[in-house]
Amino acid sequence: MEQITESLNLVLIGRTGAGKSLSGNTILGQQAFISKKSSKPVTQYVAVKSGTVGNISVNVYDTPGLYDTDINEENIQQTLENVLQTCESGPCVFLLVIKADKFTEKEKEIVEKIEKRLGEKHLKKTWILFTKGDELEDENMTIKEFLDDSEPLKKLVQKYDQRYHVFNNKAKEDNGQVQNLLVKILKSYFDTLEDIPEILTQNSLKRKILKNIEPDTPADSLSSRQIVLLGKSGVGKSAAGNTILGEKKFISVMRMNSVTSDCSVKHATVSDRPVSVVDTPGFFDTKMTREEIAKEVAKSVYLSSPGPHAFLIVLRVNDRYTEQEQQIPHLIERMFGEEVLKYSIILFTNGDQLNGDSVEKLIEENCKLRHLVQECGGRYHVFNNKDQNNRDQVNDLLQKIDTMIEQNGGGHYSNQMLEDALRIRQEEDEIEIVRNETEKRVRAEIKALSHFSPLKTSTWF
To answer: How many CB atoms lie within 10 A of CB 78?
Structure first.
């Protein structure tokens, strides 16, 4: 096979019947590969076809169904080695093709074998490509809802740091699914990989990515929004989630103890755009330790793939901004890092209890609250969760989120930001442990010295 440079190389791998050849045709927008229903591999050898997607040159490699009975281990290894040698002259990404269907033990076993063959280095460049998106659409189910119903697949995408995408290979028109996949892949490739050849930092491929794709759209969709709700128990996080989504998706009751003990994500179409909302456990929940809360709340980032566009820090407009509330922004920064407030908006609930006062007046009268709003770029919003039919309040919130995204350069909070925050927190905890142990040892030494000191005798005076 001829080596092709200055292009993105996409390698389709997986078992027979998963839809590799169909997916290759979808990417290239033409019948480039032979595709038909068969229990035996239609593709006997590695086939490569080239095309252009949104001004980006791509080479698609269709491989035989791995670990089928007609292909022995030696041929499998040779197939992968040939592909690696051929495509790694340029940026190379593996698409592990899996049907959005029941994930059987046999399929799990095949995935594990493929992972072993690829090795850790290449797994970092591997994305899961789910096919059968048309069947999900027929059942009015999103890919995230499908994954929530399948614990093995849910664990699999977590293992891949939420690197996944879904294809409807029966779609007759270009609905942006291919371009959205390339946006995800290319942003991840150039932002996170350490082994990018130096030439790629200046070549035309990256310039095309930055010019033609990256600025236009968040990675998930042209208008999709991923929102995470944060705050103490009883402030109306779940009710706010229901208000945003326009229907009762989260359990919401009047209670000071947290109703939500696990992160949960719900989806809806709001003003013709896909919106996902993650509800989180309340800070200071007496049923959970602070460390347990921190670990659970951190999951919200992975549930908001490719990353939250907005964190909503929920406060009740009629509450006193006490010392406990003042701890919340520090807790959030400790969990998510200093960058998190760039992606945050204060959401005041109980807007019906303002009683003619303006929220601006309340903010102005409390310097601590005013400081928090300033830390969030002056962004705040008010909800009346008792009036869920008032969609203007939701549309106004989405508009503020859109404006914030523009101010952040079109980006979102990422998994990498969370990992950096977790690493810093771990380092700080280790330093604190050493400091406490040192102080304890010094006190013990001082106590021992004072016990035997002649200064304690009466003759001193």
So the answer is: 12
Strand, coil or helix: 451: helix
pTM of the entire predicted model: 0.49
d(CA 63, CA 76): 10
Same fold for the pair 8-216 and 225-413: yes
Query: Which pLDDT score, from 0 to 100, does residue 392 have?
Result: 92
Per-residue model confidence (pLDDT) at position 70 = 57
Strand residue runs (E) in 133-237? 164-166, 225-230
Q: Map out the domains of the chain as residue ranges.
A: 8-216, 225-413, 426-453
Angle, in degrees to the nearest 10, between helices 415-452 and 290-303: 160
Q: What is the third-level CATH fold of 225-413?
A: Rossmann fold (3.40.50)
Helices 237-245 and 392-407, packing angle to 10 deg: 100
- CA angle at residue 401 from 398 to 406, to 5 degrees? 130
pLDDT of residue 71: 57
- For residue 66, the model assigns a pLDDT of 65
- Residues in the chain predicted with pLDDT less than 50, given as ranges, are 1-5, 39, 42, 69, 192-205, 207-222, 455-461
Residue-level pLDDT at 237: 93
**What six digits make up the tokens of 99?**
């049907």
Q: How many residues does the chain have?
A: 461
Architecture of the domain delimited by 8-216: 3-Layer(aba) Sandwich (3.40)
Identify the CA nearest to 348 among candidates 440, 273, 451, 243: 243
Q: Per-residue pLDDT tens for 42-56?
A: 455 778 899 888 778
β-strands 344-349, 380-382 pairing = parallel
Query: In terms of DSSP H, where are the helices of 209-306?
Result: 237-245, 290-303
Distance CA 28, CA 50 (A): 7
269: left (phi over 0), alpha (psi -120 to 50) or beta: beta
